[in-house]
Design a protein that fits this description.
206 residues; six-stranded antiparallel sheet; Beta-galactosidase, Chain A, domain 5; mainly beta; 2 domains; globular; 16 strands; Chondroitinase Ac, Chain A, domain 3
């Protein structure tokens, strides 16, 4: 842990002391150049204190040292109740940012959550004109009034946009199960398909 932890609750920022505590109505958290923003104020748990462990316990790699070390570690999490039902949460991870930028809400204001369901999660960055969609199973999503995206299989799709026009598409099969990635859009004539290479991802400019 290289820096202090700054927490904003109800638009009031505070540098917190070391320890473990639950914070309510959190707008954002900042630590070591990374911001964590909550579109809806949330209750979060933070632990920023000395922790004992080993690299082997983390990654189980044979070449990792098993000697225990003590270091200050930052941990942030949402406390799920036991067996939650129809629960949801939203957060945005913002790399390479500052406390000043977090206060301005630049990244939060540029990110629009299009859908957040057990089947599909989708966001759009209006500043970068990028839309990212995770399909946990086959389905469709309305990106805008004039743009619909349909996937025939689970996977991840990223669209680079120019207004309502798709200029570049990237797809990924994290499960490494597909030989081809089938999807279509009303903005693309006759749909599209991709061959998934050995790295389980593909890109195409349109």
């Amino acid at each position: 842990m290289k820096t202090d932890v700054t927490v904003s609750t109800t638009n009031k920022k505070t540098i917190i002391t070391k320890g473990e505590k639950e914070y309510e109505n959190v707008d954002w958290v900042f630590q070591d150049g990374i911001g964590y923003a909550f579109p809806n104020p949330a209750s979060v748990n933070i632990r920023n204190m000395e922790t004992t462990g080993s690299w082997w316990k983390i990654n189980k790699q044979n070449d990792s040292p098993k000697d225990e070390v003590k270091m200050d570690v930052f941990k942030l999490w949402l406390n799920h109740v036991e067996r939650p039902s129809d629960a949801s949460y939203e957060y945005i991870v913002i790399p390479a940012t500052t406390v000043e930028k977090m206060e301005q809400n630049i990244s939060k204001n540029n990110v629009v959550i299009l859908l957040n369901t057990p089947e599909i999660q989708a966001v759009k960055n209006t500043a970068l004109n990028i839309c990212q969609v995770v399909f946990y199973k086959a389905g469709h999503i309305q990106i805008s009034d004039n743009l619909t995206l349909v996937s025939d299989n689970p996977g991840i799709i990223m669209l680079k946009m120019d207004g309502e026009k798709i200029t570049e598409i990237s797809v990924s099969d994290p499960n490494r199960e597909l030989g081809r990635f089938y999807f279509s859009s009303n903005e693309i004539e006759n749909g599209q398909f991709f061959h998934i290479n050995k790295n389980s991802n593909a890109k195409r400019k349109l």
